[in-house]
Amino acid sequence: MPYNFQAGGANDAILQVLAQRRQEEQQALVQKLAQQQQAEQNRRADAQLKLQQEQEARIASAQKAAAEDLATNRRGARAANVYENQLPGVVDPKTATEQREFGYGGVLTETPVTQGQPTGAMMPGQEDVPLYDVVSGHITSSGGSKYQTAKQLATDKADAAKLAQGTTAMVAAANAAAAKERNDADNQTRRELTALIASGQGNTTDLKRQLLQLDIDKKTGEAKSLKDEKAAKLEAVRAPAQEAADVLDSLLDMKTGALRGDVTPVVGWGASIPGHTAIPSHATAISRIDRLKSLLVVDLMGQMKKQSRTGATGFGALSGPELAILEASAGRLARTQTEASFTEELHRLREKLEKVLTDVPEAAAPGAPATAPAAGKRIVYGMDGKPVTK
């Protein structure tokens, strides 16, 4: 039934309806505002979550990259260590892969899988196809840089010993020939004296003169033999000294007095860099330094001490105190020194080696005449007892 607005209380009903509608509209507006606020909060929460997830992803990516870099550095250090210290022989594939990855594969040789001898059996189901043994492939290494350096040093030392042995043998043969020649001359003189006495043609003065000449010849021969022996001992020392001087000159720029360019990176701070021997120029410089130390400490000092025990007292122009300085400098020579200290030791060593290689005047033999006779002349004494040169 329609509402009669004309009836009593109609105005109140309208007002109630309008009030109720306004209240509903306000509630709807409040709900809308609340929904908008909730949506904004959700949006902000989503944005915060997304930002946090992106940050966590960046951190995880950075951690992963750092872990990968650390693993790569470890593999590189392991490959460098293997390259430096490995002995010749078979290498497992994983190690070989790491060496090739970091540029150390030059010492590796790979033998592929090959077909061996027939087994005498046939392939199952194919009686006309013979079976063969299969020889598995393998990877071998020729040895690390330390092994190669030690091998080269051993080869050089063996060559130097062979050269020294040949020189000693040649000097010994020359001394033996000279001794035989002197002995033959002495025997001939004795036979002549014996024949002279037997024939009655000699006299006391002639005999004295001949015997004195024989004694002089003998002493002269002995002095020459001692001189030859001393020269042989000095030559045995000079061979390693000359080789050490040549190697030392390859480390120093003799014009400027400074280290050569390929030596500087492996001395001082450069000596502590891991894996630096992988660079060929660095490995070559280190090999020369190790060779110099071996020549000085093992070959030269060993030969000097050996010759000193056999009676040698001088080595060129090098004095006894300078010999001690040479030995001390050789012992101090190390790549861990500063560049300036290393260079100073090389110059000190070069000075002492020059003295070993420098000849000094020979002192006159005890009992020898003040004035040596001319070459090819013999001293003959006259009736008045004075020497007459013929």
Helix share, percent:
55-70%
Mean pLDDT: 76
Going across the major beta sheet, what is the strand order?
1-5-2
**Could you give the count of β-strands?**
7
Total of domains = 3
Structural class of the secondary elements?
mainly alpha
From the N-terminal CA to the C-terminal CA, the straight-line distance is 179 Å
Beta content comes to: 5-15%
Count of separate DSSP helical elements = 7
Report on the biggest sheet: 3 strands, antiparallel
Radius of gyration: 49 Å
Question: What would you call the shape?
Answer: elongated
The helix/strand order is HEHEEEEHHHHHEE
Low-confidence stretches: 363-385
Subunit organisation of the chains:
single chain
Provide structural commentary:
The structure is a single chain. This protein folds into three domains: 12-85; 94-141, no CATH class; 145-389. 63% of the residues lie in helices and 9% in strands. It contains seven helices and seven strands, in the order αβαββββαααααββ. It has helices at residues 10-85, 93-101, 145-199, 204-249, 280-309, 320-332, 339-356; strands at residues 89-91, 108-111, 114-123, 126-135, 138-141, 379-381, 387-389. It has a three-stranded antiparallel sheet with strand order 1-5-2. A two-stranded antiparallel ribbon has the order 3-4. A hairpin with a 2-residue loop joins β3 (114-123) and β4. It is elongated, with a radius of gyration of 49 Å. Mean pLDDT is 76; it is low at 363-385.
